[in-house]
Design brief:
alpha+beta; three-stranded mixed sheet; 5 helices; globular
Length: 122
């Protein structure tokens, strides 16, 4: 759950060409990528291959969630990661931001509970 340029291009195509009116950024509980990022930041864990790139993308959400001193950092960081992706999509130029401002596109976020199937909007 992070926005990179390739993903952003797909969203631009979906919204501008296919007229998709809603993007739902959906994280999920117990996310291994967010958990790995926490371990790298808190325990100096080292990850192989391209995994450090994934950690770099998620790191800002973990850092921001940590500032609130949450009871469960993983849960807080997952929700924050979703919020940051929503914000990036809402403000992405040149396509998505204008569509959001014109109310042609809504970008929302939620966290999916793997055990229950319920989505909690954030």
């Amino acid at each position: 759950n992070f926005v990179n340029d390739d993903g952003l291009a797909s969203f631009e195509y979906a919204t501008k060409v296919l007229n998709v009116p809603l993007i739902l950024v959906l994280g999920h509980n117990n996310c291994g990528a967010v958990d790995a990022t926490i371990k790298v930041l808190k325990e100096n864990a080292e990850l192989p291959g391209h995994l450090p790139e994934l950690v770099n993308a998620i790191k800002p959400a973990v850092e921001r969630a940590s500032k609130g001193d949450p009871k469960n950092l993983l849960t807080a960081a997952i929700a924050e990661n979703v919020r940051q992706a929503v914000q990036r999509l809402q403000t992405a130029q040149p396509v998505l931001q204008g569509m959001v401002q014109q109310k042609k596109l809504m970008v929302a976020g939620g966290v999916y509970d793997l055990a229950t199937g319920k989505v909690t909007l954030v």
